[in-house]
């Protein structure tokens, strides 16, 4: 699959690059994508939720009424969850939501995500660029030139570039990562995936 290389002004440089069919042209495995996205979202959960149960409630331990003869249900503790102010029955407890996935499955999921975006013509290849200093306005100019100012975009760099990263950090709709940090969720969450030329070699090996 050949794709034209654009410059930061959105103009065709006249060069084309070959995107590997093993990464951008595979048959999409929906279940692998589902599992990888599920794991990504699960790993982001803090799991610090907690509700007090009856053993943790402060209150009297006196039996609140006699066992028989009241005409109502028997009750032994004011801390029971059936009473107002009582403990929560089967409430949430702190837990870890993360789970393990095989490396092979995650590779299939990432390739499926990239193939999905490629099939929908949402992949752009841009020549490498840099800023002398972090400057959000300069990054916005790049987005406007590429027609991405109102779209969620994912910029994939070949290696860490602090100036480019800091220039995009304040923008809600733009995100910058390196090819080593590429994830199924990030790829599918973007309207457009912008690959810098230097990132292609690493992406072809994921």
UniProtKB/TrEMBL annotation:
Top-rank lineage group of the source organism: Bacteria
Keywords linked to the UniProt accession: Ribonucleoprotein, Ribosomal protein, RNA-binding, rRNA-binding
Pfam families with a match to the protein in the record: Ribosomal_L4
GO cellular component, one term: ribosome
Residue span of region Disordered: 44-78
Family: Belongs to the universal ribosomal protein uL4 family.
Oligomer status and interactors: Part of the 50S ribosomal subunit.
Reported function: Forms part of the polypeptide exit tunnel. One of the primary rRNA binding proteins, this protein initially binds near the 5'-end of the 23S rRNA. It is important during the early stages of 50S assembly. It makes multiple contacts with different domains of the 23S rRNA in the assembled 50S subunit and ribosome.
Name this polypeptide is given: Large ribosomal subunit protein uL4
Gene: rplD
């Amino acid at each position: 699959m050949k794709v034209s290389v654009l410059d930061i002004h959105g103009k065709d440089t006249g060069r084309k690059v070959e995107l590997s069919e093993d990464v951008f042209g595979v048959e999409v495995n929906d279940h692998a994508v589902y599992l990888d996205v599920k794991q990504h979202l699960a790993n982001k959960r803090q799991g610090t939720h907690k509700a007090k149960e009856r053993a943790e409630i402060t209150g009297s331990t006196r039996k609140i009424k006699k066992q028989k003869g009241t005409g109502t249900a028997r009750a032994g503790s004011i801390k029971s969850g059936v009473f107002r102010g009582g403990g929560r029955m089967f409430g949430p407890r702190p837990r870890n939501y993360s789970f393990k996935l095989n490396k092979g499955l995650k590779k299939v999921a990432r390739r499926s995500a990239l193939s999905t975006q490629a099939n929908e013509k949402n992949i752009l290849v841009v020549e490498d660029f840099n800023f002398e200093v972090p400057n959000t306005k300069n990054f916005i100019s790049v987005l406007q030139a590429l027609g991405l100012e109102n779209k969620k975009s994912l910029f994939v760099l070949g290696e860490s570039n602090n100036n480019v990263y800091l220039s995009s950090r304040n923008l809600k709709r733009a995100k910058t990562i390196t090819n080593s940090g590429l994830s199924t969720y990030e790829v599918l969450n973007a309207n457009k995936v912008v690959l810098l030329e230097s990132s292609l070699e690493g992406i072809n090996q994921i």
